[in-house]
Design a protein that fits this description.
The complex is a heterodimer. Chain A is of the alpha/beta class. Chain A is 46% helix and 17% strand. Chain A contains eleven helices and twelve strands. The longest helix of chain A is centred in the first third of the chain and has 20 residues. Chain A is globular. In chain B, α4 runs antiparallel to α5, α4 packs parallel to α6 and α8 packs across α9. Classes of the chains: A alpha/beta, B mainly alpha. Chains A and B meet through α1, α2, β7, α7 and α8 of A and α3, α4, α5, α6 and α11 of B.
Chain lengths: 333, 352
C-alpha cells in the first residue's frame, strides 16, 4: 500500500489543479453539438417479437455501428426486441446463430460472410421454424440457403460503378487500398474497380488496425509511383488517412472511397475527398429487421423471394452532400 | 541526405560499470546488444537501396523514418520493461485508450484539448501503475497480468466510446481550442532542406537518447538490469525491485500515451477498435533489436534499430513494388533474416 499512497497524493493534486485551471474550449466540442436529435416514430401495436441479428462485424467499426442503429430503429418501430451479436470468426458466428435458435427467437437476420460455415446452422434454424433473412454479405448464396430475402450491395457491381465513375472523372492510374488482406468483399470491390476502370489499377495492402502505418504505407506508394492520380479506399477512415498521405507526399492524387462516416462527409464538403460510394448500412439493418416483421405479420417477402434488395451503390458527391451531412451528424449515414 | 542512417548514435563500445575484465576492442564492440541488429538493418537498407529506385530519395527516407518512429516510440518503453524482465501485451491497445481518453474528455466537457492530453497521460500512467501493482502484488507472470489488461482495455475502448459518444469513433476535435498547439507538439512536420520530416522522428530519437543515458549512466539503469537479470539477488543487495518494475510499466504507459497523442492529433478522430496486434510489433521490434525475452540484457539503441527494421521493411516492400499479395510474407521473412543475422553475429562474438 505504501507505493499506492505515495502516488495517489500527487495524482489527486494534479487532478484537482486540472479541474480548477481547466480552460474551456470556445469552439467545437459537445456544447456545439448539443442540438443533434434522433429520428423518432410511433410503435406498431402488433404482439412483441424477438429478433436476433448476427453479423461478422469487427468490434469498433463505424460502418457496423450505423447498420446496428438502423436495425434498432426498425425494432423500436415494429415492437421488436432486438438481440444483436457479432463475431468476425465464422465458426463463432455460427455458434451465435445456434444461441439464437436456443433462445427460440421469432426471426434471425444474419450476414453470410463465409456461407459454407453458416449454411448448416441456418438450416437448423429453418427446421426449428425460425424465419431467416440475409443481409450485407452472401449475395450469391442467400437464395440457395433458402433465406426469405437479402438486403445488401453487390460488391462487384459497386466496384464496377466506382470504376466507371473514375473513368468519367478522367483518372488514368488508380490505387485501390485494401485494409484487410484476404477479405472477400474488399477484394471483390477492388476487382470490380479494376474490371470497369479503363486506366491502370493497382492494389495496395495496409494494416487497418494502425492508422499511422496506413498513412505512411500509402505515402510510400505515392512516392514510389508518381503516376498515381486517384486513390480508392474501401472505408471512410482510410480515405481520411489517404488525404494526409497525398499531401505529405506532395502528390496531386485525388481520393474517393467506399462507405462513409461523419468526418468523411465533412471531407467531401471541403473537397478533400471527391466522392463516396454508400451501401447504406442503416438501410440494410433496418430492412432486415422490418422484413421479419412483415413476414411474421403479413406473410410478405421483400424482393419476392427471387431477387435481392439492393441498398447500394449510392453515390455521395458535393452535389448531394448537404442533405446527407445532416443525417451523418447523427451517426446514421 | 541519401546516406542518412537513422541509428541515433554509433554504439558506444564502453560500458565501464558492468565490464569486469579488459577485453579486446572488437570483442567489446560485437558483444554489444545492438550490433547484430545494426548489421541486419544495414543489410536490409542496402538491399532496398539497390533494388528500389524511389527508396533512394530523401522523401522516401523521411517516410521510412516516420513509420519507424510511430513503432519506435512505444518500443523504447517496451524495451526497458523487457530488460527489466517483464513484458506488456497491453501497450498496443493502450495507445488507442490514451487517444480515446484525451479526445472524449476534451470533447464531452468542451475543454481545451490540452486538458484532455493531461487527462490521457494520467490514464496511461494509471494503466502502467495498475499492471505493475497487480504484478508485484500477486507475483503472477506479466504475460497473464498484461493479457488481462489488454482484453479489458479492448472492451473498455469500445464500450466507453459507445457509452460516451453514442458512436464507435470519437468526434473530431480539430476545431477546438489548443488543437493547433498540441498538433505542433505531437504531429507536425519539420522542413529540412527539401524534405519534410515528421516531428515524431525527433521525439523518438530523444526518447532513445534519454533511455540510453538512464540505462548506462544512472543508478536506475543498474536497477533495471539487475531486476531483469536476477530479481532475488537484486532485492538482496537493496534494489527496490517492485518500485523499479512499477516504474517500468508506467514508462510503457508514458510512451503509449505519446504515441496515442500523435495518433489523435494526426488524424483528429480515433476509431475505438484500433491498436489490436500492435503490441506484438513493439515486442518484436525490441527482440529484433537485441532485447532478450528473458530480461537482463538489451539496449534502447538496439530497440530503435529494431523499430527501424520494421518501419523500413514495411515501407521498403512498397517502394520496391513487390507483389502486394506477398506483403506480410516478405515482412516476416525479412524479420527472420534480420534476427538470424543478429544471432549469428552474437555467437561469433562469443566464440572470438
Amino acid at each position: 500500500m505504501k507505493t499506492r499512497n505515495r502516488l495517489l497524493g500527487p495524482l489527486a493534486l494534479v487532478m484537482a489543479g486540472l479541474l480548477a485551471l481547466a480552460g474551456c474550449s470556445s469552439s467545437g466540442g459537445k456544447q456545439a453539438e448539443e442540438d443533434a436529435a434522433g429520428a423518432g416514430a410511433g410503435t406498431a401495436d402488433t404482439p412483441r417479437l424477438k429478433v436476433a441479428m448476427i453479423t461478422h462485424a469487427v468490434p469498433g467499426d463505424t460502418f457496423w455501428d450505423i447498420l446496428r442503429k438502423g436495425a434498432q430503429a426498425a425494432a423500436a418501430k415494429d415492437n421488436i426486441e432486438l438481440v444483436y451479436s457479432a463475431n468476425p470468426d465464422a465458426g463463432k458466428q455460427a455458434n451465435l446463430v445456434q444461441n439464437a435458435i436456443d433462445q427460440n427467437v421469432d426471426g434471425i437476420a444474419v450476414t453470410l460472410a463465409k456461407p459454407d460455415a453458416l449454411t448448416d446452422v441456418v438450416r437448423k434454424a429453418q427446421d426449428a421454424g425460425i424465419p431467416v433473412v440475409g443481409f450485407n454479405s452472401g449475395l450469391n448464396e442467400w437464395k440457395e440457403a433458402g433465406l426469405l430475402g437479402y438486403f445488401g450491395q453487390d460488391e462487384t457491381v459497386a466496384g464496377e460503378a466506382f470504376g466507371r465513375r473514375l473513368n468519367e472523372e478522367g483518372a488514368k492510374h488508380v490505387l485501390c487500398v485494401i485494409q484487410e488482406q484476404g477479405h472477400v468483399a474488399l477484394e471483390a470491390r477492388c476487382a470490380g474497380v479494376k474490371k470497369a476502370f479503363q486506366g491502370k489499377a493497382e492494389i495496395l495492402y495496409v494494416n487497418g488496425a494502425d492508422m499511422p502505418s496506413v498513412q505512411s504505407t500509402i505515402q510510400a506508394k505515392l512516392q514510389q509511383d508518381a503516376g498515381i492520380d486517384y486513390i480508392a479506399t474501401l472505408g471512410a477512415p482510410f480515405a481520411l488517412a489517404a488525404v494526409q498521405s497525398a499531401s505529405d507526399a506532395g502528390s496531386a492524387a485525388k481520393i474517393a472511397t467506399f462507405d462513409t462516416n461523419k468526418d468523411l462527409v465533412q471531407a467531401i464538403k471541403d473537397g478533400d475527398v471527391q466522392f463516396a460510394v454508400d451501401q447504406q448500412p442503416y438501410l440494410q439493418g433496418y430492412l432486415a429487421v422490418d422484413a421479419i416483421w412483415l413476414y411474421q405479420h403479413n406473410g410478405n417477402y421483400m424482393g419476392g423471394r427471387e431477387e435481392p434488395v439492393l441498398t447500394g451503390p449510392a453515390f455521395i458527391t458535393k452535389d448531394n452532400i448537404d442533405q446527407i451531412a445532416e443525417f451523418a451528424a447523427n451517426g446514421t449515414r | 541526405m541519401t546516406q542518412v542512417h537513422p541509428a541515433p548514435a554509433p554504439p558506444t563500445p564502453r560500458r565501464e560499470h558492468t565490464q569486469v575484465s579488459r577485453k579486446s576492442w572488437s570483442k567489446r564492440f560485437f558483444g554489444r546488444p545492438e550490433v547484430g541488429s545494426l548489421m541486419g538493418a544495414v543489410a536490409i537498407f542496402v538491399m532496398f537501396y539497390a533494388i528500389a529506385d524511389p527508396f533512394r530519395t530523401p522523401g522516401a527516407q523521411s517516410t521510412v523514418l516516420y513509420a519507424s518512429s510511430t513503432i519506435g516510440i512505444v518500443t523504447v518503453g517496451v524495451c526497458l520493461l523487457m530488460i527489466g524482465g517483464e513484458f506488456d501485451l497491453s501497450a498496443g491497445v493502450g495507445v488507442t485508450t490514451s487517444a480515446l481518453a484525451a479526445s472524449m474528455f476534451a470533447f464531452q466537457l468542451s475543454l481545451n484539448v490540452w486538458v484532455g492530453v493531461v487527462f490521457a497521460l494520467l490514464v496511461s500512467l494509471g494503466i502502467g501503475l495498475f499492471n505493475g501493482f497487480v504484478l508485484t502484488r500477486t507475483k503472477l507472470p506479466s504475460f497473464l497480468v498484461t493479457l488481462a489488461t489488454f482484453l479489458m482495455l479492448q472492451g473498455l475502448n469500445l464500450a466507453m466510446t459507445k457509452l460516451v459518444t453514442g458512436n464507435v469513433a470519437t468526434n473530431s476535435i480539430s476545431d477546438m481550442d489548443g488543437f493547433d498547439s498540441a498538433k505542433a507538439i505531437f504531429a507536425s512536420s519539420v522542413q529540412i532542406g527539401s524534405v519534410s520530416v515528421k516531428i515524431t522522428v525527433f521525439w523518438w530519437l530523444l526518447f532513445v537518447a534519454v533511455a540510453t543515458w538512464v540505462l548506462l549512466r544512472t543508478k536506475v539503469g543498474n536497477w533495471i538490469f539487475a531486476v531483469g537479470g536476477k530479481a532475488d539477488s537484486a532485492r538482496a543487495v537493496g534494489v527496490p525491485v517492485n518500485r523499479t518494475k512499477i516504474g517500468l510499466f508506467m514508462t510503457v504507459g508514458f510512451t503509449a500515451w505519446f504515441a496515442g497523442m500523435h495518433k489523435l492529433f494526426a488524424f483528429n478522430t480515433v476509431q475505438s477498435g484500433e491498436g489490436v496486434g500492435q503490441e506484438l510489433i513493439f515486442i518484436a521490434a525490441a527482440v529484433v533489436g537485441g532485447c532478450l525475452l528473458t530480461g537482463g540484457y538489451g539496449s534502447a539503441i538496439g530497440a530503435a534499430i529494431g523499430a527501424f527494421i520494421f518501419g523500413m521493411t514495411g515501407q521498403g516492400i512498397v517502394f520496391a513494388n513487390w507483389n502486394p499479395d506477398w506483403y506480410m510474407f516478405f515482412v516476416g521473412i525479412t524479420l527472420l533474416v534480420a534476427t538470424l543475422l543478429n544471432l549469428w553475429v552474437r555467437n561469433r562474438a562469443a566464440r572470438r
